Automatic annotation (TrEMBL):
Name by which UniProt lists this protein: 2-polyprenyl-6-methoxyphenol hydroxylase-like FAD-dependent oxidoreductase
Molecular functions per Gene Ontology: FAD binding
InterPro entries, sorted: FAD-bd (IPR002938), FAD/NAD-bd_sf (IPR036188), FAD_aromatic-hydroxylase (IPR051704)
PANTHER family xref list: MONOOXYGENASE (PTHR46865:SF2), OXIDOREDUCTASE-RELATED (PTHR46865)
Superkingdom, taxonomy of origin: Bacteria
Amino acid sequence: MAKTRVLISGASVAGPALAHFLQRVGYDVTVVERAPAVRDSGYAVDFRGPAFDVLDEMGILDEVRGLDTGMRGVVLVDGTGAETGRLPAEVFAGELEVPKRELTRILHRITADDVEYVFGDSISTLTPRDSGFAVEFEGGGPREFDLVIGADGLYSKVRQLAFGPHTDTVRHLGMSGAGFSAPNHLGLDRVGVLQQAEGAAVYLFSAGDPDRLTVSLSFATASAALDRRSRGEQEAAVRDAFGRHGWEVPRLLDAMAEADDFYFASAGQVHLDSWSRGRVALVGDAGYCAAPTSGMGTSQALIGARVLAGQLADSGGDHAAAFAAYEARLRPYVTENQAKGREAALVFGGGAMPVS
């Protein structure tokens, strides 16, 4: 009997995790990723609650624990840099925090021998067939797959092709931010510094590399339109939002222009009546992003991947039943996390969460 052929779009966290579980139960899995290689971007990801069970089931829990950034907490400062309070590490770092690039490397390593990876490419069209899809890629001709899974983030190409435009599914939470690295001139060591003002926040931390300062400059925005603008336009918006701030901000704005890892993103959530349509399903941020303010993105991705793979394995080949069971089991958890994301966005009043 031929193996079920599954195409997964996205090789960050949800995609490789799902690939790992599916290939273990006999699926023929291909992962396509727009980036030319395993992504080396992103700052830190954290794990909470049931996500540890998933890491343990994958056999990587001890390895991931060994990469703990060891964050010791966050210092709150006023507009002059004077300390006004402290927050425990768990607020931003969860129960365990590791560099995102290390997690993606581990997930790729444990799947590379049994999963086909196609880097530097993306899905361009999905054409339904009687028992699957003819998939056209931007870099090549069509291939046939039985199932297609979108694990490609907030602005998922799979979701756009199968469910409709992003404007119908992505809800902006009123904040955007720039992230980048700078020299650690403050000498921070496994500690964060947070300065909040009305409608804006500066968050700095150093973990892992004592010479590197990770910077997040978040501010209130009416829409996510800046996500689709050029870096120059994004930097201009950041300067406009922070141009009147004192303390270390002028120096940070100068460093932003020199950063080779500049990243800009808006806080948003994905809301869908259903996470599947026919032979297409979504996992992680592509289907139910809870926003960075929730602190649950990585945990949701891992748990969603395990639940989806488990339902497919138990379905006896009935993908529709598997997709329905996956959603029924996971949606209450996602609904709770999305509520946390919205509440945190309101509390932070326009930005205190690092983009990643």
